[in-house]
Each structure stands twice: as C-alpha cells, then as structure tokens.
Input
Amino acid sequence: MSDMMVINFSSFVDRGAVLGPYKRQAVKALGKAGAYSRKDVQRLMKKTKNKSAPPGEAPRYHTAASAFNLRSRIFFGVDRDDLSVLIGPDQKTIKIARTHEEGGYPPVYHIKYSKGQVGPIRKARSGSLYVFVRLRSRKQVLRARSLSLIAQKVTLKRYPRRPFFAPTMPKAETHLLNNLEGMM
Output
C-alpha cells in the first residue's frame, strides 16, 4: 500500500475581532475629516455688515444669533455601518444652502395662514404694498395664502453662484487620506 498521510485541518477566524480595530480607526479618521471639513467650510464664510459676497466667493453671514445663519448650521456625522461621513447644512437651511452653492432662485416658503392670524387680503392702492388684517373667514385665509406666494415670487431675485463646499473638498480628501494612512 501507499504511504499516504491524510491531514484534516479546520479553523475559525473571528472576523469582528480581526477587523474591529481597523474599523474603529477608520471611524475615528472619518470623524476627524468631517470635523476638519466642517471647520474649513465655516472658515470660508466671512462676517460682514449688510454686504453680500461677490459672485464666485463663499456666502457671508451677518449675525451669529440669527436662526437661519448658514455658517452655524453646518454639521457632520459619521455612519459607522457604511463607514462614511456626511457634511452639510441642517434641514432648515438646506434649500438656501443649495441655492448659494449652485446659484439660482431662492426657495419659496409657503406661509400657512389660519383664522385669527394677521395676513394680507389685497394690494394697497399705493403700489406694491399689501393690506394686512386679522383673518376672520376661510375665504380670507385662502386669499392671504395666494397673495403671500405672489408677493414672494415678485420679489425673488436670482442668486449668483457662491460655492462654499466645492472649494473645500480637495483639501478634505487629502486630510482624510492622511488620517487613513496614519492608521496603517
């Protein structure tokens, strides 16, 4: 007979234990890159008094206390499952942020008037102003809603392109790659 030797070998590799440290380091690197990118975007936005930024420059902000201050409403978050980072404005300012980034017309906000509130019911005789009264009937409420949309559309002016995310992306990618190389 032949002198053959049979060896059976089985093994178990705990994938989570092996890849866990790398995933933690990747999440940490993504967090650092997100924080760096957020701060870089905020640095581009300068504070001025009642002056808009020229086309092609990042938008400016006027007060820190404003509810719609775009600079203070930029956040970042790391998705641990997908190993990705998301950087951008919150839900309240996302429409106007997109308008600044790409240029175009600002979003039209629908004001939801109801009975008891003060709203426009007709144009004033003196020109482009509106007469405001306390809304007492459903017909007045509907009229106020349509007039507010008309008034907004008339006063809309086109925003020039003022990018603030696009200029920071190459630096953010470099920063992320440096952080990832540091963990290997």
